[in-house]
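Usage example:
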Amino acid sequence: MIFAPVGAGGKLLERGITVLGHRPAYLERAAELGARYLKVPDHIWERWSDAERWAANQRFLDRAIARGDEFVLATKAGAARAGSFFARELEYLASKGYRVAEDGWRLIAPGK
Amino acid sequence: MIARENPLLTNWTRILAAVGISESELLSERYDPEHFGDGEASFRLSGSIIVRLVRERGEDFVEIAARSAPGERFRWDDLCVALGWRKVEDVVGRTRPIPVEQELAEVVARASELETAVAVRRLPSTRKAVGEAGEQRERAFLEKLQRLADAHDRGSD
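Running the assembly step on the lines above writes:
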């Protein structure tokens, strides 16, 4: 499968950090932290329907949740563009019990 | 790495023409094939308005700047809230972005009001109103996230 969450060292199963946000901030923050982020090249992304895109996005989040990754936000949660994939990611994670930290820059896992 | 032509420009230029913006000057553009085909382009329209189109994960967003302050960009949503054209709850309640054709058609329909709002004399008050609109939007979205997390907790009790 070509699309994959990218992480330093390419280790996909270890608990780590997943970065979410708008571009270019999430690329910069992920590079800084050696963290995972969703990366799909244009020729794949353009082929997918909106539902397929969201399904891939959701799988990426579900895997991060399953690993117990920390979610770091490269764009403050409140600044998510309305209706964007980033906003939907935050809504999805909130529906799983994640809460925005007081400073707005990370998510707190349910029960923590 | 060989630079690739920005494929977004053809589509955006066609949309600009379709909504009635036949004269625009391309100021800048960028395209990233490695990351979803994200990109952006800024167009100077006739008058005082600069429109910046942003493509992120296949979705387009509109920003507006004044010709006198091209680096200061306002989100179209925030500008609409600030000028009383949209309600914060409608913006935050959205589950998908509004299609760019529709957004640009509204920019055209509001062009004369927009010209006034970004005119040098009015820019400080517009800036203040857009800042307040942005704060309202951010608060409302955080409250929405809080409600979703609360609902999760109630469900798992």
